[in-house]
Amino acid sequence: MLHPCVRTRFLLLSFCLLALPFHDTVTVQAFVGTYGINYGRIADNIPPPESVVKLLKLAKIKNVKIFDADHSVLNAFKGSGLELVVAIPNEYVKDMSVNEDRAVDWLKENVQPFLPETHIRGIAVGNEVLGGADQDLAEALFGAIKNVYNATKILQLDNIIEVSTPHSEAVFANSYPPSSCTFKEDVLVNLKPILDLFSHTGTPFYINAYPFLAYKSDPEHIDIKYALFQSNAGIYDAKTNLHYDNMFDAQVDAAYTALEAAGYAKMEVRVSETGWASGGDQDEAGATLQNARTYNYNLRKRLLRKKGTPLRPKIPVKAYIFALFNENLKPGPTSERHFGLFKADGSISYDIGFRGLQSSSASMFSLKLIRAHGWFMPYTATLISCAIALFLALAT
Description:
There is one protein chain. By secondary structure, this protein is an alpha/beta fold. The chain contains 13 helices and 13 strands. The protein is globular.
């Protein structure tokens, strides 16, 4: 039973929602296939965006999400055919919630000039805002989303750009077993109008699902094989009579259960972040190279099968992997700097079926060889580069 104050806020927010200038809407398809990746750039040693585009094409990764709207990235993605989601960082959410004009100005500066050559397909407003410590930010989130969505309509971009927001597991009161999951009551106050809008626009519910974090927090009671998609006894959910053989599916179905309990049974759940750290501090259980490879290899196989979950078997799970690179400037525990599928030089962190920027490595090696031996004649450098290219071609 909701507290009377909570009910009052629900009514006020619902009234505000009804006042929105909604017209006929078109559901935007912002995700091709089922596999995507987060391209974080909190680092000073990763390749430039132009090289990243080459890497993504080499890896055949079509869906990419960044955490801002950096113009160097947007320009690099021009003509690439890659599907891009940009973001409005948390520090701009309050300002964006003030009025529609600010949202329109932001789109005119950071989105509209790059279309249609850069395939911007989505705008993520904030990241993991609800369930956090900043209540003022949480209360501003709906206003920011509303204004950004209305700005896409004003600029006639609502038919190609999806407006969304990613959530952490902190929005849930309980998530085990999956059938028991509900939203926290204080979170639902600010989440309900957002869900009403997304239900109207056909926007998925985005969740950051990390079996790694769950395992790290309780390694004594969680079977690591269950977290890594390996053969295990799994869990049985008595309420739904469903069996789960991996934690990832269970986390997605927990979100589906919470949405259904809140009145949004038809809303799709999409994973905005998931991954496994390849290194960490001594107290970060499971953060090893082997575990990261196992998780990401098995996750990729699972996603490429385009299947649903035990609770929603007909809705293929779509997920953005975290992350493209190890980011050496990220704050926090050591694991935060070791989520990359690729190293800073563009080579693979571990083998899950992708190829790195091998041509880049060849050029670096060639340059070192020339400098070491004092061979600066152009024809010598060319011969060395050709020899290395031939060796790599034969090796692959």
